[in-house]
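Researcher: Re-running this chain for the archive, since the previous output was lost when a drive failed. Same request as before.
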Amino acid sequence: RHHNDNNTKKMTTSALILGSALIAFAPTTSILFAVTYSKSQLIIVVTTSAFCFLIAALFSSICYMILPKAFLSMTVPSIFCQAFARIQFVKFYIKVEGAIIQAMENHRREHTSNTNSSSSDNDGGESLTLAMNDWTSGLAAGVGYGFMHAILMCGTLLASEARDDAGVLYQDSCQNIPSVLNTSFMAMLFSVLDVVIMLLYFYAVRRKAEGADGSIMCTIDVGHDRGAKAASANAAIIAALIAHTSAAFASWLNGSMTNGCYFALPLVAAVVW
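Model: Regenerated C-alpha cells:
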C-alpha cells in the first residue's frame, strides 16, 4: 500500500507540473505556432526580442544590486529598464525593416530593367513584405518577451518540483494552492501582458517615426496630422507604462501577505484584460 501511495503521489505531482507548464507557456506557444513559426523573419524577431529582454533584466539586476532592497526601488527601475529596452528594440526593428525594403526596391528595379526576370523572384519579395508588418512583428516580439519572462518566473520552480521527491510546495502567500500552479498563472498573465505592451510600443514608436519622417508608413494605424500622431504615440507609451506598473504592484500582494494570491491574481488579470 505504501508503494501504491508513492506511485499515486508521483503521478499527481507529474500531472501538476505538466498542467502548470501548459498554463504558463500556452499563450506564447500558441502565438508562436499560429503566427510566427512558418516565417523565418518572424522567428528572428522572436529570438532577438528574447535576448533584448535578458539585457533589460541584466540592467534591472544591476539596479537591484546598487539600490536599497525595497519593493519600490526594485520595481520602478525594472519597469523603466524594460520600457527603454522595448523602445530601442522597436527602433532597431524599424531600421532593419527600412534596409530590407530598400534592398527589395533595388531588387525590383534590377529585374524590371531586365525583361528576362522570372516571376518566382517577384513572389519571394512579395512574401517577404507580407511577413514583416507591425502586427505580426509586434506579436513575434511579444512572444519572445513573454516566453522568456515566463521561463524566468516559473522555469526554475517547475524544474525544482520535477526533481524534488519531498512533495508539492505550498507557501504562505497561497496556502491552499500549490506554489507552482500559482506562479504558472502569474507567468501566463504576464506573458499575455508582454504581448499587448509590445504591440503598444510598436504602435507608439512607429507613430513617432511617422511624425519625424512622413515617408515611413505605419501598418497598425495611419494618420495625417503630426501633432495627433505624437499625442497618440505618447498616450500608447503612457498606457503601456501604467499597465506594466499596475500589474507589478498587483503582483506585490502575492508575497506581502498571507494568501495574497487571492488578491494578486484577479488584479493582474484585470490589468491584462
